[in-house]
User: Which sequence fits this backbone?
């Protein structure tokens, strides 16, 4: 078992432990006066793990109900959150009760958003079951839903009371979604940890998942502690994301998973920055080799012009310029503000 402490406004622990699903109740009980707990989960994860978490919560004295929605990014919308609010109301959830998000990134983001807004905010807990959620989205307190005009455009900052990561849940994760998470794992190596990147090169990621999870959440913890509300340093977590979001959008959010789009975006931006002398020579090639090793794309089927045009609506943009995250070398990154025209120039060089 390893524990990572996050010292945000409301501090909390991230517990990485095999079998921790069965200890959810005992670990959550001391954190809350809640009488009721609502498990929020999707139709893929609920049948696999819902009962174990429910039993554990009931053994610790919680009255448990379960809200299950259709799996997939398409569910991450306000109309599903509204159904959740109705469900909370019908099950007498009060301000002191607790929401338990059990599932991948969609579940965590959406259940977190419902918890952040219902009755102006109730406590929630993250139990991430996908690699992407375990290494990235369950930590840091960003909650959101998608809008028809873009991903994650309506949301709130609200930190969970605890994050419980059971690496055993990865055993049931389809290969495609393991790869999806690896897109973000490679990102963490690129921006902050040459050591992690080298392990991804030399070893097989599936054999070292515990270490990968610990390393990624530790990096995210360090960044989030310094910039909880995303006004500065937290931007480095968006390496590969500006172009990645454009690629996801051009693929109508079904052509590429988030991790695949981030992989393609990070390879593309690194080729551009290396070509322009901003990144140490050989970095792009090394990054591409690792991405290809894990079956991740290093290119998209869209043209540079299409991608450049699609970056314009990015929510990371401020005013006229976009804050790009570039690598100095593997393990070291920096921010560079570029206008659309300046970006186009780099692209065309
Ligand atoms: Mg991401």
Assistant:
């Amino acid at each position: 078992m390893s524990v990572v402490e996050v010292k945000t406004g409301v501090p909390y622990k991230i517990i990485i432990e095999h079998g921790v699903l069965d200890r959810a109740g005992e670990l959550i009980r001391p954190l809350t006066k809640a009488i009721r707990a609502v498990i929020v989960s999707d139709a893929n994860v609920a049948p696999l793990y819902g009962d174990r978490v429910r039993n554990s919560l009931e053994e610790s004295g919680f009255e448990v109900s379960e809200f299950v929605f259709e799996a997939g990014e398409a569910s991450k919308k306000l109309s599903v959150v509204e159904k959740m609010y109705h469900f909370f109301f019908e099950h007498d959830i009060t301000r002191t009760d607790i929401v338990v998000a059990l599932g991948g990134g969609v579940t965590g983001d959406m259940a977190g958003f419902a918890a952040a807004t219902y009755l102006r905010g109730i406590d929630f807990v993250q139990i991430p079951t996908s690699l992407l959620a375990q290494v990235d989205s369950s930590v840091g307190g960003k909650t959101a839903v998608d809008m028809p005009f873009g991903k994650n455009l309506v949301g709130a900052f609200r930190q969970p009371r605890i994050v419980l990561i059971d690496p055993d849940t990865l055993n049931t994760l389809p290969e495609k979604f393991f790869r999806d998470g690896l897109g973000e794992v490679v990102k963490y190596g690129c921006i902050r940890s040459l050591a992690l990147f080298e392990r991804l090169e030399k070893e097989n990621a599936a054999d070292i998942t515990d270490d990968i999870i610990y390393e990624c959440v530790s990096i995210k913890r360090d960044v989030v502690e310094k910039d909880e509300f995303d006004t500065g340093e937290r931007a480095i977590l968006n390496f590969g994301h500006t172009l990645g979001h454009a690629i996801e959008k051009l693929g109508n959010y079904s052509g590429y998973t988030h991790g695949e789009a981030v992989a393609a975006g990070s390879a593309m931006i690194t080729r551009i920055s290396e070509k322009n002398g901003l990144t140490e020579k050989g970095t792009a090639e090394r990054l591409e080799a690792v991405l290809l090793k894990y079956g991740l794309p290093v290119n998209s089927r869209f043209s540079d012009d299409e991608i450049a045009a699609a970056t314009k609506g990015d929510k990371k943009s401020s005013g006229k310029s976009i804050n790009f995250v570039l690598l100095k070398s593997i393990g070291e990154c920096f921010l560079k503000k570029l206008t659309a025209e300046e970006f186009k120039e780099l692209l065309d060089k």
In short: Residues 2-172 form a domain with the Rossmann fold fold (CATH 3.40.50.1970). Residues 175-192 form the longest helix (18 residues).
